[in-house]
Amino acid sequence: MVVRHRPAASPGAAVVVLHGGREHSREASRGWHLAALRMRPVLRAAVAATDRQDVLVGEVRYRYRGWNATADPVHDTVRALDELRRTVGEVPVTLVGHSMGGRAALRAAADPAVRGVLALAPWCPPGEPVDHLGGKRIVVLHGDRDRVTDPGESADYVRRARRAAAQAGIVLVRRGDHAMLRRCADWHRATAAIVAQLLRPEPVIEGLAGEACAADGPLPW
Q1: In sequence order, which residues have a C-beta less than 8 Å from that of residue 28 and are 6 or more positions away?
Q2: Residue 128: which CATH number?
Q3: pTM of the model
Q4: Domain named KANL3/Tex30 alpha/beta hydrolase-like: which ranges (predicted)?
């Protein structure tokens, strides 16, 4: 894990960001790849997300660009969470992942330190496991014009996560694309708001995240 923001005080919580990738690739992942660079403003939004002064922000560094048959980014995320635990002790973690990184974040939510996940245009193929999400807070942001990952599959994932006892909701970004470039300022503003809401310790989620989790279906935005 690469630490992008370390608070002056001892961390009381952490936000860990996961970028996208490819379905299959053993090419080494690099910080200058477009998928990683696209998450820089998301990282800035995460840093600005809360008025708390004790939030550490980090980024998972993958070994490979691809998911591959062995869910490589999930293993990298688990190692990053273990590294975080060794460095700062047990703190509640919110994961923020885009596309392939969204799928990895949702899988890695099995770690007991993970309290919430914000999945941005995630890759949620049919049958993706949800049984480990009980008691977790899950919010999906997905563009209704995404042609790379399917917002319908994200909505189905959220429905199944709710049946598995997660607090889960989906916000459907009107005219939103997969790269989060169309209406980019709105994506970043929503990311900042939802991360702040997921970081709060209160059992009831408020704001946009709370509205999404309370809605019967996808929340248009």
Answers
A1: 63, 64, 65
A2: 3.40.50.1820
A3: 0.97
A4: 81-183
